[in-house]
Structure formats: structure tokens, C-alpha cells
Write a sequence for this structure.
């Protein structure tokens, strides 16, 4: 069946690229070259004390904003500008390492959006200012699961922005034999149209869960078993892709390992959203989050604080959830908005139970980190 | 003398540019390639030559060999497709020559990444080509898709130098070949081809070098078994947080490419001497 050319191309070129897809996938690779020139140097040699200075919540200049592209409703930035009479000077990163490289180079941003893992690295390096929760309205709406996150003891330097769960997206009209297990990625009848996320954490993490290990295990024997599982899975896969929106909307993937927000964006772009399902798997659900943070060298931390507070307002959060397609962990507005987005397939939601039972990727250290890196590199190369 | 000094002054901006933006980063790259990472994966300087030992592990050599194979196939395809195009434009282009050459270059105004995405739209299982054929052929995620993407991506680098060589060639030479009772094929083999060898060689180098280090085609059009050395390096910097190993891989690859480059330059210089003699 021949579809209109405009329809075909328009669908691919106009679409909003999912944020995590962009992160590890297709469009993000353009920056590979951009790394040249970033030294190994550590930019700000800030001390613990520097990070403790109190921020006055008041307009102290334009907001220098640093985030993924397409990862906030632009209408909200306009609204913020209007309300406080400031400009939002936006720039974007396309991977966490490139965000870190810019920060290390000493460029001053007022608000950044690190993932949990990178938030912890920044906090340990004394790179994030303290955010006084008491000063911000609506922090009581943030899910209590984030009161003591593993990456930020006491929630002192970050406020959660979004959250995600990882599972399998699949075409209910094409695939048979989904059983609720991670093994379905290789075993269910997908007609050879199955893609795994091109992401070392998600890849090895999935294998660990399938084998019944802890998500973040660094045990040598367990990692060897997980690597074997992946090597066994490899010939059954059509490809590895983190640009899950392209792979599913183009019809190249009938089963795709993906983040729950991506399936929302996929359903927004197809004619038959009811056929695009999300499966959380019985062996375990990786969950994670992105955060707001204010770098220690921010020139306008007061405006940044106002901005975070602005995004916590239930109406604004709800509007943002509807635009980005990812859930935000706040009661009222955001929660209701996401439930509304996925009311025809509530499985896509990240529930409080998921947060309680799910497992979060943590920063691995020293030998553990090297072992994961090695396992993944060898899996890809062999 | 003063004129010489004046001429040398012209080298200053370019020299500074190269020093600051090429030599210094290259030095940093070299230094990092002997470095290590801290607990959390941040790169540290140091003396850890084992990064290089790891590069020569057989699984990585296999990736390098695969990349070279794909790049050579790309060169061959570019030559097979690009040479006739260049020939047609140079010989029969007439007053349309410049327009036709502009058409060859035009797609390059669009970013390579975007053009590769267009291939996904065209060659997808439910894409344009399968739509026209009324079929369900899997083009994507195969070695052919990767080689095809590379060929498309770097085609102009073959056409332009070959075209330049053909355009410079005196048409009287071809006519002389025919006057000497050479058929079209003989004339081509004995007259045209030898005269455009330098152009073909230049095109080969221009296509081979970027193709062997490319990571876009394999990532977007390849499957799990089409991993290339560019992907391996990119992964060390952007995913694995192992800059030292990524830098070591880069240094080895640059050295490897440099050898090719030197071979090419020497052959080009020899040819120039022969022509002059």
C-alpha cells in the first residue's frame, strides 16, 4: 500500500524526537565531533562550602537554561518570561557526557537537568548549589519516594523533574506470544522486527533482571552470565536503537525495548494508537528520573529558583506533561495529566507501586563500572 | 628576502589556527590515550599503556577489519557509479556542465545525518520503496544498507576529482585514440582511464578516509553485526565513559589512516614527476 510521500517524510521529519531517544540515539550522534576541545580539566574547583550558600528567591537576571532539546513545553518558557520580565536564554545538550563537558569547561548555567546518575556525580564534585525546599512552594506535592533519593541525600541539591520506567513496546496487531517477560524481546513472534535499546545500562540491566540478579550487580560470575544472555540474544535481534520513536513509527520495529514516555510520543504520531502497547516485565522494572539543579557557578540562581518553583505549579506541570509525554512525580496536576494521556493503556503509567518495587540504575564505581563497560563494549563489538 | 618574509607572514593565521585547533587537541588526545579514569569514569592523565594493548584485542581488530571492508566496498561502488556520471558531465555536459556539477553537490547542503534519516523513511519496511514495490523487503539493518548509505553519503567526493581530471583532459587525445582504430572500450582503457588515474586515486582517498571512520551509517542503517570502529570510539566517549580507551582507539586509527595517506601522496608525487619528465 503506497502512502503519500508527504505523509511519509512529514511523519519522520516533523516529529518531536523523544528525549531519551535523542539522548542515546540517532540525532544525538551529531555531537560526537563536538567533543574536541574539552579537556580533562575539572572546571570549577568548588568546595563543599561554596555549594551551601543560600539562594535568595528573587529575579537576579535572565535565566540561562541548559536542557535536552524538546524536553519542555516552549509555551511555558514564554509564560515564565512574561511573568517575571526576564529572558530565557536556552541552549541544549544531546548527551549527559556532553553536558558534563560544558560544565567542566566552566560555562555558567542557571538551571540544568541532569539524570539521577549524573546529579550524584555533580553533587559529589561540589558542583550543585543547595536548593532550600522550604523556600519553594508546592514541594509538598513531590512524591515522597523522592524525599531521600539515592543520588541526593535529603534532596538538598536537586528537585525531581520527570521519571520513567523501562519496558517493551509492541504492536498488538502484529506480535503474538507476549508473556509479560523480558524474554519476549527475543522469543515472541515479531517477524524479525525487534530492537533492543542501544544503552549499556538498560542492556546489561535487562540481562541481569532476566537472570534474576540485582539490576546493578557487579558480581563477576553474574555479569558473565548476563553477557552470555546478551550474546545469545544478539542474533535474534534486528538491531539496537535508542531512537525508538523512528523505529516504531516507521514500522521497522514491532517489539522495541523502550522508555515509557517514548510510547506516549509514538501513540501521538500514529493513526492507530490502540495497537501500540507497553509491557512492564515480571522480572523487574528499571525506573529512573531526571532532575532540576542549579550549578555552583550560576550567575542568576535566584531566577533559577523561581523557575523551578514555576514548574512545580500544578497547572504548569500538567501542561508540561502533556507536551513532553513523560510523567512528572508530583501529586495533583502532573499525575492527573499523565493518567489522562494513558487512559486507554494504563500500563504505560509509572505508578507509586512501580517506584516502590522498581529498581534504579546507580552509579557504578571503580572495578564494577569497568566491568560493565567492558561487557557492553565486547557485546557490541563481537 | 623581504618578499619572502612577506609571503611567510601569510602562513601566520593558518599556522596559528592549525596549532591551536589541531596540534594542541591532538596532543591532549595523545595524553588522554595514556590516561585512566577515576572511580566515576572521569578521565585522568597518567601512564597506562595497557589502553593500547586492549586495542589489539582480536574482537576490536575484527571491528577495524569490518570497517576497512565496508570502506573499500564503498570506494568501489562510488567509482563504479561516480565515474560514468563524471564522464558524462565532462564529455557531454556542454553548456549544462556547471549546472550538472551543482546538482551533484546540492544534496551536500543538507546535513549527512538528515539525509541518512531520509533513507530510513525511504527504505523502511513500510517505507516509500516497499510501498512502490508493494513488497515487504527488509533493506535496513543489513550490511548492504550500511554500504549503500556510505556510498550515497560520500559519492560527491569521487565524482568531483574524477570530473576535474576528465575536464582537464584534452579531447583531442580521445579523438587520436579513435583515429588509431581504437574502439570505444579500447580508447577508454588505453587513453581515458590512464589520464584520469590521479583523479580516481584522489577520489579513492577522499571517500575511503571518512567512510572508514564513519559511525552514522552503521548506527542508523546497520543491525547488531554492522558495528564499525567509529561506533566503537563514539561509544567510549558518549556512553561507556572511557575516554582513555576511546582516545587510544582514535590514535591507532589515525596512524593507520596516515599510512594510507602517505602511500597516496608518494604515488601522486611519483606520477607528477613522470608527467614532468
Amino acid at each position: 500500500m503506497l502512502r503519500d510521500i508527504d505523509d511519509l517524510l512529514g511523519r519522520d521529519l516533523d516529529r518531536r524526537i523523544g528525549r531519551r531517544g535523542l539522548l542515546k540515539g540517532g540525532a544525538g550522534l551529531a555531537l560526537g565531533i563536538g567533543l574536541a576541545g574539552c579537556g580533562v580539566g575539572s572546571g570549577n574547583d568548588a568546595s563543599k562550602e561554596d555549594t551551601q550558600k543560600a539562594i535568595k528567591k528573587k529575579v537576579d537576571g535572565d535565566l540561562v537554561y541548559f536542557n535536552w532539546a524538546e524536553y519542555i513545553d516552549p509555551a511555558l518558557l514564554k509564560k515564565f518570561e512574561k511573568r517575571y520580565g526576564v529572558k530565557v536564554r536556552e541552549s541544549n545538550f544531546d548527551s549527559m557526557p556532553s553536558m558534563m563537558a560544558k560544565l567542566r569547561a566552566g560555562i555558567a548555567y542557571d538551571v540544568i537537568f541532569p539524570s539521577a546518575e549524573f546529579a550524584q556525580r555533580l553533587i559529589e564534585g561540589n558542583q550543585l548549589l543547595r536548593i532550600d525546599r522550604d523556600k519553594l512552594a508546592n514541594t509538598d506535592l513531590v512524591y515522597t519516594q523522592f524525599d531521600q533519593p539515592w543520588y541526593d541525600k535529603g534532596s538538598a541539591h536537586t528537585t525531581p523533574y520527570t521519571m520513567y520506567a523501562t519496558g517493551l513496546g509492541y504492536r498488538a496487531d502484529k506480535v503474538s506470544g507476549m508473556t509479560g517477560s523480558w524474554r519476549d524481546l527475543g522469543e515472541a513472534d515479531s517477524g524479525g522486527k525487534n530492537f533492543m535499546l542501544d544503552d549499556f545500562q538498560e542492556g546489561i540491566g535487562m540481562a541481569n533482571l532476566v537472570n534474576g540478579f540485582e539490576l546493578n550487580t557487579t558480581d563477576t560470575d553474574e555479569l558473565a552470565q548476563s553477557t552470555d544472555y546478551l550474546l545469545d540474544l544478539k542474533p535474534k535481534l534486528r538491531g539496537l536503537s535508542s531512537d525508538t520513536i523512528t523505529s516504531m513509527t516507521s514500522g521497522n520495529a514491532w517489539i522495541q525495548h523502550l522508555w515509557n514516555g517514548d510510547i506516549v510520543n509514538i501513540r501521538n504520531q500514529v493513526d492507530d494508537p490502540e495497537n501500540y502497547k507497553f509491557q512492564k516485565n515480571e522480572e523487574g522494572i528499571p525506573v529512573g528520573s531526571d532532575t532540576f539543579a542549579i550549578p555552583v557557578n550560576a550567575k542568576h540562581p535566584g531566577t533559577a529558583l523561581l523557575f523551578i518553583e514555576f514548574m512545580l505549579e500544578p497547572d504548569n506541570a500538567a501542561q508540561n506533561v502533556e507536551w513532553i509525554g513523560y510523567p512528572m512525580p508530583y501529586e495533583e496536576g502532573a499525575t492527573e495529566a499523565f493518567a489522562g494521556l494513558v487512559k486507554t493503556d494504563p500500563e504505560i503509567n509509572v505508578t507509586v507501586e512501580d517506584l516502590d518495587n522498581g529498581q534504579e540504575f546507580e552509579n557504578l564505581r571503580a572495578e564494577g563500572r569497568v566491568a560493565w563497560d567492558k561487557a557492553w563494549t565486547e557485546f557490541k563489538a563481537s | 628576502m623581504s618578499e619572502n618574509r612577506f609571503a611567510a607572514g601569510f602562513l601566520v593565521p593558518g599556522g596559528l589556527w592549525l596549532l591551536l585547533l589541531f596540534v594542541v587537541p591532538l596532543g591532549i588526545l595523545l595524553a588522554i590515550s595514556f590516561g585512566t579514569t577515576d572511580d566515576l569514569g572521569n578521565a585522568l592523565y597518567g601512564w597506562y599503556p595497557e589502553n593500547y594493548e586492549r586495542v589489539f584485542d582480536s574482537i576490536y581488530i575484527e571491528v577495524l577489519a569490518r570497517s576497512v571492508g565496508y570502506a573499500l566496498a564503498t570506494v568501489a561502488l562510488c567509482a563504479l557509479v561516480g565515474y560514468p556520471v563524471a564522464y558524462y558531465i565532462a564529455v557531454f555536459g556542454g553548456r549544462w556542465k556547471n549546472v550538472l556539477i551543482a546538482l551533484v553537490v546540492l544534496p551536500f547542503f543538507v546535513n549527512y545525518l538528515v539525509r541518512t534519516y531520509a533513507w530510513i523513511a525511504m527504505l523502511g519496511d513500510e517505507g516509500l520503496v516497499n510501498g512502490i514495490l508493494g513488497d515487504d523487503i527488509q533493506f535496513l539493518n543489513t550490511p548492504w544498507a550500511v554500504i549503500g548509505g556510505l556510498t550515497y553519503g560520500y559519492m560527491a567526493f569521487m565524482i568531483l576529482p574524477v570530473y576535474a581530471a576528465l575536464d582537464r583532459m584534452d579531447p583531442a587525445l580521445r579523438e587520436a585514440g579513435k583515429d588509431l582504430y581504437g574502439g570505444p572500450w579500447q580508447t577508454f582503457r588505453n587513453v581515458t582511464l590512464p589520464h584520469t588515474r590521479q583523479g580516481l586515486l584522489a577520489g579513492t582517498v577522499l571517500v575511503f578516509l571518512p567512510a572508514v571512520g564513519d559511525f552514522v551509517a552503521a548506527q542508523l542503517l546497520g543491525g547488531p553485526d554492522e558495528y564499525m570502529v567509529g561506533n566503537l570510539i563514539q561509544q567510549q566517549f558518549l556512553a561507556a565513559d572511557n575516554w582513555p580507551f576511546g582516545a587510544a582507539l582514535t590514535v591507532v586509527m589515525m596512524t593507520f589512516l596516515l599510512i594510507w595517506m602517505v602511500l597516496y601522496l608518494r604515488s601522486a608525487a611519483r606520477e607528477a614527476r613522470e608527467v614532468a619528465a
Observations:
- Chain B has a mean pLDDT of 92.
